[in-house]
Amino acid sequence: MSRLLWSWILGGLLLAGSLRAHSPQETYARLIWEADQLRMKIELPWAFRQAVFARFPELEQASSRAQLEDGFREYLAENIRVWQGKTRLQPTTIALGDGQHSHSLSVRLLFPVTAGALPDLEIENRLLFNLFDQAQNHHSWQLSQAGKGRFISTPQQARFAPWGQKEAASPSRRAARLGYSLLFVGLMVALAYWRPSQHSPNVSRW
Question: What DSSP string describes 67-117?
Answer without folding.
Answer: HHHHHHHHHHHHHEEEEETTEEEPPSEEEEEE-SSTT-EEEEEEEE--TT-
